[in-house]
Amino acid sequence: MIKTRIWVPVMTTIALSMTASSAMAKVSEAEAAKLGKELTCVGAEAAANADGSIPAFSGKWLGKPPHVEYTPHVGQHPVDVYPEDKPLFEITAANYEQYADKLSEGQVGMFKRFPDTFRMPVYQSRRDFRYPDIICELAKKNALEAELIDGGLGYTGYKGPVGFPIPKEPMEVLANMNFPYRAFTEHVVRDIADVSSNGSITWGRQVNKNLNVVTSPGELGKPMEGLMAYSISGTLLPERDRGSFTASQEPVNFARAKRLAWQYDPGTRRVRQLPTYGFDSPMGGTSGKMTIDQDRLMNGDPSRYEWTLQGKKEMYIPANAYRIHSKDVKYADLLTKGHAKPDYMRYELRRVWVLEGKLKEGFRHAFGKRVLFIDEDNWQASVGDYYDQRGQLWQHAFINHFYAFDLNAWQAGTAFYHDLNAGAYVGFNLIQERDNAWVLNAGDLTPDMYTPAALRAMGQ
């Protein structure tokens, strides 16, 4: 059993309940005026940290940098923007204690579980990409007008950017994590590797088509209401599950609507509505090793947990993760015993929000506690630590994000979910050996593709 203690020095300490009030105050004109100046347009600290190890935000690039060759919207594998960068140093089992204040408990657990092989190569931190102007304008509008409603399960405001670029309480940070500016259409065939403790691999494969309503061009700036997103997922591997498809519709407010989902069963050739889809239901293609709400580290209805905001800290997290997504990376080399090969990883020192969820009394979930570490520059969760019902560290997961030129924002790439007790892990969102990576913002998906009738037609 892995059991470690985390010391988190925070720049701000906040411990507020999601039930604090049904509507939270907007920020003042003076606070909102900091956006685009002291703060980036989505609320990150623009300045460097004290010793310059986190640089000042430059935002010098919007979309593809001049030195990069890239064809948009066709699924080209990500191109490394910083190909000449080399690691500044590595964190290992031998020296991790000197960096402990900038690590999560799960990262420490990885060093203890795999002392001979787990390493974190640390690179120069870079903050060179920015969001489109319209997203910055709407973020400021949200800062002045958006409010939480329904106990934090929804909020007023405008579609497109995060709702609370200057957050004051936990459910605002959670809302930002669930509603960052990201691709409005996404189509990918992804491989999933269930890597056992002895290194053997059971393969899964899915085809995914996602339509994100709130960042669709025609929806930007409209009131935050209705549906958040549509998703369809089809299983290609393992062979026993091949031909199963699930379609879902996600609301923006889980107090007023729930996630609806339908599944096509190739055995019966029938479509049935799923009574519950999400929470700790098994993720398809992962041999039951991942839960549905672990995709992007946390998604869906958050109401089973009591959320507290632990503040902000400096932490080593995956960032600018281009190399791992190269089409030249081979699974046989990447997917080593215990964890993925560290040589393909890129960690940077960045500022993160620390959000903790504890399971409420009387509610059921596999995880008794989950701690999310959210990059201040893009509001996406990069690292997640998961605990069992006894409060013991169980799993450590991280996502390799990169700035995608197709959408002028950050894309969640390949992720790894480690069972620290079993010594096994899941490699998720693997595209390295696929002909295409993510096809983003092609605009080729419509709501009528996510109905039960469309699902039935896909299974024929």
Work out the strand percent.
25-35%
Discrete helix count: 6
Task: Determine the fraction of residues in helical runs and give it as a percent range.
Answer: 10-25%
Low-confidence segments, given as residue ranges, are 1-23
Largest sheet: 14 strands, antiparallel
User: Helix-strand pattern, N to C?
Assistant: HEHEHEEHEEEEEEEHEEEEEEEH
What is the multimeric organization of the chains shown?
single chain
Distance between the termini: 47 Å
Query: What form results from the Cα inertia axes?
Result: globular
What number is the mean pLDDT?
A: 94
> In terms of structural class, how would the helical and strand content be classed?
mainly beta
Number of strands: 18
Rg, please?
21 Å
Keywords: Signal
InterPro entries: DUF1329
Organism: Thauera mechernichensis
Signal peptide: 1-25
